[in-house]
Design goal:
With about 375 residues, the chain is α+β, with helices and mostly antiparallel strands. About 25% of the residues lie in helices and about 30% in strands.
Length: about 375
């Protein structure tokens, strides 16, 4: 393809993206907290969301990468769960790969969205007055710290963002099949929502129309007309560099689809879509031996794992319930009491034929 044709294609993509997000004019360059965006530059700063007991500010570290021209503003955040370190490292990689000189619009990268949980190296804020899951408190309110942080994030996303991406992993004791979760229940046309979800190039889509997580930011922002996605990749310890590259590449695919950034790893439309979700817990305590891996296909009665007691005897066999189709996630922790969150399963699976990659394109590698 000639350089002239490349330029025409890029201009057309940018124009299409702008049309797709036609609406009230946004602030340009975009600013959040202390971060004052500048056309063609990367800038850094913070957004104050709360205070610690000694009065020092609790702040979200933010980077804004702005293109030379106005366009879609994409908010990408990580570490809403404090033990999901891979999302932060993937977001670092994504930002490093962006070239403001070739971009249209901007990326607002919130590197750590839940500092109290991150500082505690735990999923949620360990303060006994809180213990709230940030994925279950949106749009937030003036009560516990997690809810207050969510309220600030909610207001800023609604103020500046044309699209929203929440980066997740399985945390430090769970490993996930890569998937994109979205809830097309707002005003965004469903065909457009599905098209954007497919553009990540991730092989599993979780298309939620039941508002399973009614107070997750992905669901609430969708209801406000902002295309929103949760991208889950990997997890466990230690961090796998391939997972970080994969997650960053998937977001870059979306940015290309939106016309924000021209370069991406390629598109590989997903082959599987699910609509439901089940978790599997155990009745007996002991050691957990998984019999399946993330992304494995299963059916009712499939053996998922064993519980082995202190003597080495199998005391429970975990089997897939009715309607289970695919393994979404598996606990990597070796022991569990009764009621351990051991497996996540997808239901309502629908096959989608894989489309051939375009010339010169490939799916993000693992």
């Amino acid at each position: 393809m000639t350089r002239r044709r490349h330029r025409i294609v890029a201009i057309a993509a940018a124009a299409a993206a702008l049309l797709a997000f036609a609406g009230p004019p946004k602030e340009w360059p975009v600013s959040v907290g202390s971060v004052r965006g500048a056309a063609g530059r990367l800038v850094r700063g913070t957004l104050k969301v709360a205070e610690a007991a000694d009065g020092t500010p609790v702040e979200l570290p933010i980077q804004i990468v702005s293109g030379e021209r106005p366009g879609p503003i994409v908010w990408v955040e990580a570490a809403t769960h404090g033990d999901e370190y891979g999302g932060v490292r993937a977001l670092q990689e994504l930002v490093r790969g962006l070239d403001p000189r070739t971009m249209t619009g901007a990326v607002v990268a919130v590197m750590i969205t839940n500092p109290p949980a991150f500082r505690g190296l735990q999923r949620v804020n360990p303060n006994l007055d809180d213990l709230s899951d940030m994925g279950d408190v949106f749009p937030g309110r003036e009560r516990f710290a997690t809810e207050r942080i969510a309220a600030v994030v909610d207001a800023e996303v609604r103020r500046v963002a044309d699209a929203f991406v929440d980066l997740h992993t399985g945390g430090d004791r769970f490993r996930q099949c890569p998937f994109v979760f979205y809830s097309p229940t707002g005003t965004v046309p469903e065909p457009r929502y599905d098209e954007l979800a497919r553009s990540f190039g991730v092989p599993l889509l979780w298309r939620d129309t039941q508002k399973v997580f009614a107070h997750d930011p992905v669901t609430t922002f969708s209801g406000a007309g902002i295309p929103s996605f949760l991208l889950e990749v990997g997890g466990g310890q230690p961090l796998d560099p391939a997972d970080l590259r994969y997650q960053a590449a998937a977001v870059s695919n979306l940015l290309r689809k939106l016309g924000v950034a021209p370069a991406a790893s390629g598109l590989a439309p997903p082959t599987v879509m699910i609509s439901g979700y089940r978790i599997v817990t155990n009745a007996r305590g002991g050691f957990f031996e998984a019999a399946v891996k993330p992304c494995d296909r299963i059916r009712e009665g499939s053996v998922l794992g064993l519980i082995v007691d202190a003597y080495g005897d199998t005391v429970e066999t975990l089997r897939a319930p009715e309607g289970a189709d695919v393994v979404i996630g598996v606990s990597t922790y070796p022991a569990t009491p009764t009621g351990g969150w051991l497996l996540e399963l997808g239901t309502g699976l629908a096959e989608r034929p894989a489309a051939a990659a375009r010339p010169g394109e490939a799916s993000p590698g693992r």
